[in-house]
Amino acid sequence: MKILTLVRQVPDAEARVKVSGDRVDLDGTTLVIDGMDEYGVEEALRLRESANVEEIVALAIGPKKVEDALRTALAMGVDRAIHIETDERFDAVSLSKIVAQVAGSEGTDLILLGGQEADWDSQALGAASAERLGWPQLTWTNELKVDGDTLTGRHDVDDGNEGFKVSLPAVVTAQQGLNEPRYPTLPNIMKAKKKELRKDDLGGYNVQPSVKYLGAEIQTRARLNKMIDGKDPQAAAEQLLELLRNEAKVLA
Amino acid sequence: MILVVAEHTGGKLAKATLEMVTAARDSGREGPITLLVLGQDVAGVATEAAAVADQVLVGDLPALAQYNPEVWAAAVTQIAKEGEASTVLIGGSRSGREYAPRVAVKLDAPYLEDVIKLTASGEALQAQRYTYLARVTETVEASGPIIVASVKPGGFAPAAPAGAAGEQYDIELELPTPRTEVTGKNVEKTSRVALSEAEVIVTGGRGVGSPENFAQYVEGLADNIGAGVGATRAVVDAGWRPYAEQVGQTGKTVQPKAYIALGVSGAVQHLSGMGKSKNIIAINKDAEAPIFKVADYGIVGDVNLIVPALIAASKK
Lengths: 252, 316
Ligand SMILES: Cc1cc2nc3c(=O)[nH]c(=O)nc-3n(C[C@H](O)[C@H](O)[C@H](O)COP(=O)(O)OP(=O)(O)OC[C@H]3O[C@@H](n4cnc5c(N)ncnc54)[C@H](O)[C@@H]3O)c2cc1C
Ligand SMILES: Nc1ncnc2c1ncn2[C@@H]1O[C@H](COP(=O)(O)O)[C@@H](O)[C@H]1O
Description:
Chain A is of the alpha/beta class.
């Protein structure tokens, strides 16, 4: 079985966001491999411990800096990486064209990716890629096993969670709880420097973005910030209820 | 036509559907608003849907008894093509956002996800959405003969009936056989108002102290005031509460009239799921907790002392 894991870089969650002009300005922001993608990479590595996994390849489409995230994946244990460099922003539907082509040329049987990208949050690339390939998809997966050609596991659905069984090839998106990603050790970080990180030219994939980004704005809602001292719990509780009933009018 | 895929649970039309109807009405896109109801034994849902739509297409079939992304994508795509839809609106639920990208790929259409505003601008459709853990509002645009969008729950006001009820039509569908076998389901049922429907939500964080305290204080207060119950990831990871209650980046996004956070620190990942609530109320013993920065009303104090007083006082 060949596994393709997708990797993207995101600002560290605690990083301050700023907007310059009409877009989010990431200059000087610490970028890290998306936490959701670490679940995907980790799961690929774990599957190798229990199933016949020939190769694990990590793919990233993005600016030069994304190399760092791919190096992290390599240091975690991925065999090699492909970087399609671009500064342009692509939506999930157009990105899925690239993912499907890479999966085709790599002979991929299983694509593992993040369920939901922390920053742009489209939750769409897994499903869009699966559709292009004509494969089934399992989203929000928090338990996964492979036995021959069969994938079993558990994933979250609208009103709870479901066990599933499906045949490969398939697309699986990771979710919190799937595993605990390992930290790359120093020797592995050194080893990763020698692993293949192939640069592919975007031009060869014939894709254009299908969504235009027009602008970004930071909107903060003004909050009342009315603070009540809780030293006297009884009085504080009554004061709060009075405000919620008569000022905010949210309680009967 | 503007095709809106109805969301429904337990034989009832979901609030999310009414919100999508508003999104469709306000978008300025041309064509009758057509609700597509998929499922089994959905006659009641279809009748409810007719009250807010120009027409209702009903796919009431045993093959639709169980949701599957490939089956839903095939059904919606077929109807969008046959009806020459200009716009397809799909709910921003977990399942909606799971099959919507498939519909977009099948229709070779652009996909706008999780929109909170939709405005036609000539042939194009502009949308707003939150990004960067909901700290940034972004404007995007797509054009083409057909555009697919998923609509964020809580992003639009629910539509009220307008004029006469729409006509209902039964439809025939060609559906693929699902390839994914469902091997058992755990329904995380809550006897309370679902988080997506709740006007008031009481959420407990680690500061509540224990699962027992959570039941006594968070559920106790929620029951008293008819609220839904939410939890932070810390509390879900600790096994105190089911994942279904988690609010935040990797949980649910909510936007109630009042969000009451008890012993919640207010981490960015939590704020991204509830920061758009109309009123935020926080009780935390640490006056410096980040949750107070976004709070309209805050009590600095111990939840173990304040909440019992609140429960007692709200009973009156
Ligand atoms: C990728 C990623 C995704 C995440 N997704 C989510 C998500 O979806 N939802 C989410 O909630 N978190 C999420 N988190 C976790 C988040 O970063 C925080 O760790 C979490 O929200 C903290 O939960 P908490 O507020 O319950 O706990 P804590 O941060 O431990 O806060 C407890 C608070 O209770 C207060 N307190 C303690 N005792 C009392 C008392 N007796 N009375 C009053 N106050 C008291 C303390 O002052 C403190 O402010 C995510 C993190 C990551 C990295
Ligand atoms: N540009 C990209 N390059 C590689 N992987 C990506 C890219 N964008 C998104 N992904 C993957 O798709 C997942 C979900 O992203 P999204 O569908 O945008 O929420 C991410 O967690 C990544 O695994």
